[in-house]
Amino acid sequence: MCEIDQKLPRAVEVACPVDSLEQTLTCTIACIQEIFRINPAFTMTLTRKVTAQREMTIDGHFVPSGTTIFSSNHVMHHDPAIWGPTHDVYDPDRFLGPNAESCKRNLAPFSMVHRMCIGRNMAMINILKVVTTVLKCSKLESTNPKEKMRTVSVGNSEKEGPLVVRVRRRNLTGKPGA
């Protein structure tokens, strides 16, 4: 919140240009990246068929031509070999610390390489605009801090609910009672 309050203009004044938000709001971006990692919106596996030219050995296992393989970003985003023993803990600092570049390379909320979502940049800009606008103008509070979300299906990461949040308008004028 402090980063958004300090680096963005007051919401009642002007619209904020989006061209430099990612460089300006590094902590906010780290929070969004960690949300993408710990609870991806899209978890459907993407399949590939191994061709004769691409036979390979993965982790000591030979993968012959014709084999269908798939990857899951949810599995990758919770792999202790990549994320360490705290892989199930929300920790945005992993995207700000000394291993930040490695974390960013292993984050695939929009898939990877030629199967990457073509709308990823537009999605990221819109996510950033919505998150910063909501947090700039509102205070969000869980009505039950012990309540946890749980994924109940793969594909679009359907969540078991409800997760009830109280939204309060923030005082943006600095005047009491305004």
Automatic annotation (TrEMBL):
Top-level taxon of origin: Eukaryota
GO MF annotation, one: oxidoreductase activity, acting on paired donors, with incorporation or reduction of molecular oxygen
InterPro entries: Cyt_P450, Cyt_P450_sf, Cytochrome_P450_monoxygenase
Matching Pfam families: p450
UniProt cross-references to PANTHER family, sorted A to Z: CYTOCHROME P450, P450, PUTATIVE (EUROFUNG)-RELATED
Protein name per Swiss-Prot or TrEMBL: Cytochrome P450 oxidoreductase
Source organism (scientific name): Cladophialophora psammophila CBS 110553
Lineage: Eukaryota, Fungi, Dikarya, Ascomycota, Pezizomycotina
